[in-house]
Every structure is written in C-alpha cells, then in structure tokens.
C-alpha cells in the first residue's frame, strides 16, 4: 500500500500562525492566510525566479530581505510583510519600475488591455522618490509581422516570466532575455519575426505578462465589458475560454461614431488551476475567434427547397428532414449504407452522442471521428 | 527545460568559434548542442566579447585609465584610422591608459611594479615560482582535517572581496553528503583597479595551482575549473604551461586532477560566484539567489568550493610554514595581502604587505604620491571614495567596512587635487550601469538612474537627480539580488558625502 507521509511546518507571518506542507514557499503560506504579497514575475506554473523583487519580505534571522516566492517555510520561522522596511522597499522599487516604463497621459504605467499589475501595485503601495524617465536603450522588434503577438519593450518590466513560461510550460523556447543591464529586453533568435522561430503563437506570453507588454495585436486598446465563459470547440480537450465581449465599432479602427456592435474582442483562459487547461490555450483557442462574429456564419438551420435554394427553418423542421432522409436510406439499402462522421471540433460528450446515434438509433457501426487515426 | 543530451556548457566556446553573435551563429550552435536557438542568442547577447565581436582596439575606461587620459588615447587611435571601442576596466591599471589590440592582446606599455621578495610575505611574487608541489605532498601526508585546522589558525579570509573565512567554505564542502564535488578558481578579476590575480597567474601560477590542488584534495573533488578573465590572454598561456608541469605531481600525489580552464567573455558580473557558475554552465551570467550557497549547491547543483586566485595562492605557504606563521604576518587582520595601487602614485603595481597597512605606507612602497592627494578608493569601484582625512585607517576588511567602504579586492586608487570628484564618480557609475546584469530591477534601473543623476549635474548643473541618490541607493542595497547592485551607488554617494564642494 502506498503511504504518503506528508510533514508540515508551522510558521508565523505578521504574527499569525499557519501550517503548510514542508518545502512550501513563504508566498504560498501567506496566501493560505490571505496575506497579500505583491508579485510580478511569479506564476505557479513555472519555477519561481525571485527576480522582480516585488515580493521581498523580512524573515527573522536573515540580514537581507528575502523573496517570498522562493524562500522556503521552515518550522518556527517568523516572517513580516507589514513593516516600514518592506513598505519603503516596495515604494522604492515601484519608483524605479515607473521610471523605466511607458506612462500614459496621467503619468500611470500605460494600460495595454490585459494585466496592469504595475499600475495596480503603484495604486496599492505607492511610490517613493519621483524619478525622471531613464529611457533605457532597449531594442524592439517593430518589424515583426506575425499577426497575433505584439511586444512593447517599454511596457515590459523584464521579469522574464514569458521566457520561462515559453520554456518550462510550452517547451518551445522561442524567446529569450536579450542584452544586458538597462538594455535587457525580450528577444528572439537573431531578432527574427516570431513566425520564423520555434514560436507556436500560443500567446502564453500574453497570458502571463504582468504588464501587458506582450499583448494581442488584433485586440490592442479594445475594451472588455463582459466576460462569457465558454468551451473551446477546436478540439476535444475541452479547454475553457473566457470570451471578452464589448460594444465596438463594426469595423475596428473606425471612428467611435460608427455603428456599434457587440462582439468578442479577445479570448483568455480562466485562471490557472481552475479549469482543465490550467490557464493555457493554443493558437486556435486564443486567436481564432473571428468566426464568432463573421457575416457568413450559419446561425440557424437551412433547408434546401424545391427551388434549389437554402431557406431558413426551425430546428424541429431541420431535424425532421434529416431523420426522414436517413431513415429513407436505411429502408432502401440497410443500416450499413449509413456512415456517421463527427467533427474534431466536437467535445468528447458530443462525440459520444454521435456514436450513440449511429449504433443505437440507426444500428450501424459505421461511425468515425475526423481526428481519429 | 533542458533537452536530454543537450550540451549547454559548450555553447559559449562554440559561439566564440562561430565569431560571436553573428546572424546564423545561434542556429548553428543550437544544431551542434541541442540547446534552443533563442536561448543561445540570449547567452551571446550577454557577454560583451560575443555580443560585439570583431577585430578592433579596446580602450579601457576604468577610473585609473580615465585619469591617465584614456579619452585622449582613444582619440589618437581614431585619428590614426584605428577602429576603437571603449570598454570596462581591463585590469591593467598599472599600465594606464591601457588598451587591448584586435586579438585581445595587451598593447605594449610600461609594466607595473611588484614588491621585492621578503620573508614576511606568503606569496612572494618576486620569487621564483616553485613547481615542487611539496606543500601538496605535506597536505596529503597530514590529511584534510589538518589542512582545515591550519587554515582556521591562519585566519585566512577570502581575498576576492568578501573576506569570508576560508576554512568555513572548505569545511562545508568537505562535509557534504553528495560525493561529487567541484573546485572552482575565480580568476575573473575585473573589479576596477584590481590586477593582483593577474600578477599571481603570470608570475607564480604554480602557487595558485598548488593551492587549488590542496583544495581539491581537501574537498574530495576530482575536477577543478579555472574561470579566467577572457582579456587575460597572457595569464591563460602561463596557466596552460604550468598545468603541463603540474600534471605529474598531481598524478603522483592525489591520483590526478582534471583541470578545465574556462575563459570569460567580457562580463564583470561573472566575478560574482554564482554568476560565474552560470557562465561555466553555459548560461547568461546572472547571479543566483542565495541561499543555497555554492558550498551546498554550486556547479550543476553539486557542492562547490570556490576561491579567489590570491586566496588559493596563500594556501601553500600556510601548509608549509603553518597557520600561526601566516596569521602573524598580518597587522590588524591575519596574513599578508596583495595590494594593487594605481592612480596618482609614482610606481603603480602590486605590493605584498601586512594586512592592515595604511594608505601612506602603501604609497611609500609605491614611490610616493604624485601631486597633492585628495581622495582614495581603497578597494575597487565597489568601495567608493574616501577623503585623505581617512589616510590613517588600516586597509583591512573590518576597519574599512566600519567606514561604510570596503577592502574588497584591495584595488587602491589615489586621486589628487586635479580630479573633479563628480567626474570620478561618473566614471564609476558608468561602469556599474554597463556591467549590471539586468536581472533585477533595483540594479538594472537604479544603476542607470544614478548615472543619469551625476550626468545631469555635470552636463547641465541640474541637481534634481542628486536629491534622490540616497533613497535610490537604499533601495538598490535592499532590493538587489547580488552584491553588485548593493554597492553600485557607493561611488556617487561617497563622492557627494566627502566632496560636496564638487557638487555645488
């Protein structure tokens, strides 16, 4: 019999006691207590790097502030996140980030439509010294013509989370930390277009980027007014999607006075750890959503009439017409004259129902799924 | 995520063979090693000698060289049609203003001085190198614990800059559970104003190799790495020759030792011990978070004993003559010490003196001051500046730390009253901005903020940045991952503190 012996440690954060499994980090222990420790470079799916320095806390017995995301809890450890030293550090660090960041007209870190964690942290923790912009000498890839992913080096905090995600989660390694010192940025091999690299355009870099430096080209500056949870229908995995919906001009880029229509402006994954896809999506799930609002999309059943044209019908009429045709074939030629092929875009449940229809309702084993080999 | 069988540790040398960061080089190296192409490109872009390849003359921009007219030298070279590139300190401050030619060989200049050999020196740079490996034989005979005990008695502090007691590290690696251990020699001497390890490797390579072999014996390591600064071509040659001569002794005494020399490629930060390990492993030289320390999890995660060249060069005499003898050589702290001195003194060079001498004693050894001394930097760029009113302070680890400065690598620079201290601070801040690895924001952004603050003052008499220097320095010290970021404001802070008249 397998026996899992899990030992735990008890530590104290801001005076509150918490018990966590051995090897757990201070950050996770704090979360268990609902104590907020700000992060930029952290994502539970990749190895913690401790490089954004946002999560530094005081640990009794440690001379230096320590990153909560990497520092392991130990028995009797006393951690403080609420001291003036920690608060001053957060303000000082945020001042530096701000001086290195593209700002909007109000002097806030520019919002690119996705995560605004730097702006959020500044709003929560404040800034220290007022610093002039440093105008870091970063190179960009403005020439990159890939259709989906845009990178603004001046909206980047160089936390490298996108690079680590691309390597550790996707095992694609299309991007890298590039250059050194204040010029450090995110680049590709020989600074090529993403389409000419190992990039699979999954857009995970967008999903993890804390400041929206990586973002969806087609969705730049488009708002989110409503989020609709859905299931991706490009394959049978069942990835959950959040469809961002907003009233936008019929033609994106048209003046605001142009006719408005409600449409999907971007697709994201639900939070990691909450659904089967764990925060991940592929190129299709994340970027192929134009069909939803496409003019030629079928939105109702059509039945071809005697005139040879397709005419709108109700579902009852359409299903009756299909049943009539299939039964006719079965009567004339037998059940095995029928074949049922379901789409790879159907869910597992839909595929199951299709074979049930084939075998139980019509009595043939001629059923297939187009993605089967 | 490393692909199975990927040969990451080869990528830097292969990039060099392919001529550095040229289009297509990363793809080629990816094919040869199995490491992702983007990753390789990122590594190449980190190291100056790979990122800016090409045959050209490199002119040192270190403090001493700038004081000695590096700008003028660059202009003269340009005027004569030579392609030149300004580079961070080349570790040739005794030859200021120094330059390397298009093959990274030193452009001939005056050779710095060394102190004459005396019996109260542990290293005696002027003496003939000793290839007998008698100290190694003695160590093998007496056993590892005896060596550690002698190091403890000797009170040997790490000579790389931190001054950490050597026997702690040695003992820690020796007592690890993991049977595979490594010894790494930090010969990436790049702290501005420092050129002592260079002289050890050139004049007494066997001293260092013997210390390294004793370290390997004590630590139980079968492989030793020597990470040599890439710009020290002559040191590399001296080491290659000495290793050949050492081999029979190592085979006989400790059953052989695999010695691998890894060359640096132009990144000061790789002198930081964990950044150096990253470089050997074939990554961007970005320091690791500590703990864990290299003694527990170092090279490829194995216990690793890392020492500076000078630290190891002290070991043979400690083994031969005893820890107590070495301890007594020092004045305020144990041992004798290699002091580098440059700037406004008559005979710049490396002088081995009792640890804890004063600036005046050191300068006397170096032939006296040139002009009226006004300031000195006691231990490399990282130690900032001190006014001459502190000339009586013992140049040791403890006393300088109390002043908010540091002994560091003992690269002492004397600045006389012809130097504007704001300008001197700017030279040092440029260095730190150029050499920040860029991994953590406090250093990456802070070093640039501090450099721009002094720029604005010098170029526009604008004081706005100066008002924030202390607060930014506080954050860099608290928030940075490694020591570089922690001290990178010190030149400007100390110049403003002690020479406020240059900022009025």
UniProtKB/TrEMBL annotation, chain A:
Q: Mind telling me which InterPro entries this protein's record contains?
A: 2Fe-2S_ferredoxin-like_sf, 2Fe-2S_ferredoxin-type, 4Fe4S_Fe-S-bd, 4Fe4S_Fe_S_CS, Mopterin_OxRdtase, Mopterin_OxRdtase_4Fe-4S_dom, MopterinOxRdtase_cofactor_BS, NADH_UbQ_OxRdtase_ferredoxin
Q: Which residues form the 4Fe-4S ferredoxin-type domain?
A: 147-177, 191-219
Q: Does the keyword Mitochondrion apply?
A: no
Q: Which SMART domains match?
A: Molybdop_Fe4S4
Q: Which GO BP terms, alphabetically?
A: respiratory electron transport chain
A Pfam family reported for this protein in Swiss-Prot or TrEMBL: Fer2_4
Tell me which positions the record assigns to the signal sequence: none
For this UniProt record, the keywords arranged alphabetically read as follows: 4Fe-4S, Iron, Iron-sulfur, Metal-binding, Oxidoreductase, Repeat
Positions of the 2Fe-2S ferredoxin-type domain: 7-85
Q: Which residues form the 4Fe-4S Mo/W bis-MGD-type domain?
A: 225-296
Identification of the protein by name: Putative formate dehydrogenase
Q: Which organism is it from?
A: Enhygromyxa salina
From TrEMBL, chain B:
Regions crossing the membrane: 207-228
UniProt entry keywords in alphabetical sequence: 4Fe-4S, Iron, Iron-sulfur, Membrane, Metal-binding, Oxidoreductase, Transmembrane, Transmembrane helix
Instruction: Provide the NADH-ubiquinone oxidoreductase 51kDa subunit iron-sulphur binding domain boundaries.
Output: 421-466
Q: Name one GO molecular function term.
A: FMN binding
Q: What is its EC number?
A: 1.6.5.11
**Where does the secretion signal sit in this chain?**
none
Which SUPFAM superfamilies does its entry note?
Nqo1 FMN-binding domain-like, Nqo1 middle domain-like, Nqo1C-terminal domain-like, Thioredoxin-like
Keyword DNA damage in record: no
Family annotation (InterPro entries): NADH-UbQ_OxRdtase_51kDa_CS, Nuo51_FMN-bd, Nuo51_FMN-bd_sf, NuoE_N, Nuop51_4Fe4S-bd, Nuop51_4Fe4S-bd_sf, Soluble_ligand-bd, Thioredoxin-like_sf
Which protein family is it in?
Belongs to the complex I 51 kDa subunit family.
Mind telling me which PANTHER family this protein's record contains? NADH-QUINONE OXIDOREDUCTASE SUBUNIT F
In Swiss-Prot or TrEMBL terms, this protein is called NADH-quinone oxidoreductase subunit F
Gene name linked to the record: nuoF
């Amino acid at each position: 019999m397998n026996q899992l012996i899990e030992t735990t440690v008890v530590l104290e954060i801001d005076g509150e006691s918490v018990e966590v499994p051995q090897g757990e980090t201070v950050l996770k222990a704090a979360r268990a207590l609902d104590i907020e420790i700000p992060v930029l470079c952290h994502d539970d799916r990749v190895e913690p790097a401790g490089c954004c320095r946002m999560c530094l806390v005081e640990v009794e017995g440690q001379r230096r502030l320590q990153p909560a995301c990497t520092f392991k809890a130990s028995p009797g450890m006393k951690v403080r996140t609420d001291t003036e030293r920690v608060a001053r550090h957060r303000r000082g660090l945020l001042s530096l980030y701000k001086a290195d960041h593209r700002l909007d007209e109000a002097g806030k870190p520019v919002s690119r439509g996705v995560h605004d964690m730097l702006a959020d942290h500044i709003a929560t923790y404040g800034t220290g010294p007022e610093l002039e912009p440093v105008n870091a000498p970063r190179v960009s890839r403005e020439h990159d013509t890939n259709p989906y992913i845009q990178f603004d080096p001046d909206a980047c905090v160089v936390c490298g989370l996108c690079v680590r995600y691309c390597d550790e989660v996707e095992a694609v390694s299309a991007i890298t930390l590039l250059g050194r010192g204040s010029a450090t940025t995110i680049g590709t091999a020989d600074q090529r277009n993403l389409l000419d690299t190992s990039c699979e355009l999954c857009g995970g870099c967008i999903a993890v980027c804390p400041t929206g430096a990586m973002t969806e080209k087609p969705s730049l500056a488009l708002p989110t007014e409503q989020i609709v949870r859905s299931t991706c229908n490009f394959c049978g995995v069942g990835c959950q999607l959040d469809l961002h919906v907003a009233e936008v001009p019929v033609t994106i880029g048209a003046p605001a006075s142009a006719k408005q229509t409600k449409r999907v402006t971007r697709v994201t994954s639900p939070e990691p750890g909450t659904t089967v896809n764990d925060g991940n999506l592929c190129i299709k799930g994340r970027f192929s959503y134009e069909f939803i609002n496409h003019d030629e999309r079928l939105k109702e059943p059509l039945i071809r009439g005697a005139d040879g044209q397709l005419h709108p019908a109700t579902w009852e009429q359409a299903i009756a017409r299909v049943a009539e045709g299939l039964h006719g074939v079965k009567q004339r030629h037998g059940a095995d004259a029928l074949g049922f092929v379901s789409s790879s875009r159907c869910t597992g449940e839909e595929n199951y129902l299709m074979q049930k229809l084939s075998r139980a309702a019509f009595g043939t084993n001629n059923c297939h799924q187009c993605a089967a080999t | 995520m490393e692909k199975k069988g990927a040969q990451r540790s080869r990528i830097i040398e292969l990039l060099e063979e392919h001529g550095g960061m040229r289009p297509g080089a990363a793809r080629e190296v990816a094919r040869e090693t199995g490491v992702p192409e983007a990753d390789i490109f990122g590594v190449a872009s980190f190291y100056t000698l790979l990122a800016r390849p090409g045959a050209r003359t490199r002119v040192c921009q270190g403090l001493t060289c700038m004081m000695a007219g590096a700008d003028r030298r660059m202009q003269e070279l340009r005027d004569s049609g030579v392609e030149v590139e300004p580079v961070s300190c080349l570790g040739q401050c005794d030859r200021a203003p120094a330059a390397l030619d298009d093959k990274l060989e030193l452009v001939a200049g005056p050779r710095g001085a060394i102190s004459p050999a005396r019996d109260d020196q542990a290293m005696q740079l002027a003496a003939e190198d000793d290839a007998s490996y008698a100290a190694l034989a003695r160590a093998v005979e007496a056993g590892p614990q005896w060596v550690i005990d002698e190091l403890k008695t000797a009170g040997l502090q790490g000579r790389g800059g931190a001054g950490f007691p050597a026997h702690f590290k040695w003992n820690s690696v020796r007592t690890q559970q993991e049977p595979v251990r490594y010894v790494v020699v930090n010969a990436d001497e790049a702290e501005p104003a420092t050129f002592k390890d260079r002289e050890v490797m050139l004049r007494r390579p066997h001293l260092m190799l013997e210390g390294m072999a004793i370290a390997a014996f004590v630590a139980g390591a079968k492989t030793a790495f020597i990470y040599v600064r890439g710009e020290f071509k002559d040191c590399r040659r001296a080491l290659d020759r000495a290793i050949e001569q050492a081999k029979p002794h190592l085979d006989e005494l400790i059953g052989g030792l695999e010695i691998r020399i890894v060359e640096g490629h132009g990144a000061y930060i790789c002198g930081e011990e964990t950044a150096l390990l990253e470089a050997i492993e074939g990554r961007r030289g970005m320091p690791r978070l500590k703990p864990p320390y290299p003694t527990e999890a170092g090279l490829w995660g194995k216990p690793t004993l890392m020492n500076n060249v000078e630290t190891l060069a002290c070991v043979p005499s400690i083994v031969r003559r005893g820890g107590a003898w070495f301890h007594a050589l020092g004045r305020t702290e144990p041992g004798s010490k290699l002091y580098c001195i440059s700037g406004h003194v008559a005979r710049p060079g490396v002088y081995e003196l009792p640890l804890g001498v004063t600036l005046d004693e050191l300068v006397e050894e170096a032939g006296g001051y040139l002009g009226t001394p006004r300031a000195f930097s006691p231990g490399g760029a990282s130690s900032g500046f001190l006014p001459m009113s502190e000339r009586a302070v013992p140049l040791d680890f403890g006393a300088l730390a109390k002043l908010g400065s540091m002994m560091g690598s003992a690269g002492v620079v004397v600045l006389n009253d012809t130097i504007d201290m704001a300008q001197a601070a700017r030279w040092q801040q440029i260095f730190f901005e150029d050499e920040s690895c860029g991994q953590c924001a406090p250093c990456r952004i802070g070093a640039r903020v501090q450099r721009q603050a002094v720029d604005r003052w010098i170029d526009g008499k604008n004081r706005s940045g100066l008002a924030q220097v202390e607060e930014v320095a506080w954050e860099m010290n608290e928030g940075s991952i490694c020591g570089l970021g922690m001290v990178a404001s010190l030149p400007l802070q100390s110049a403003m503190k002690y020479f406020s008249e240059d900022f009025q």
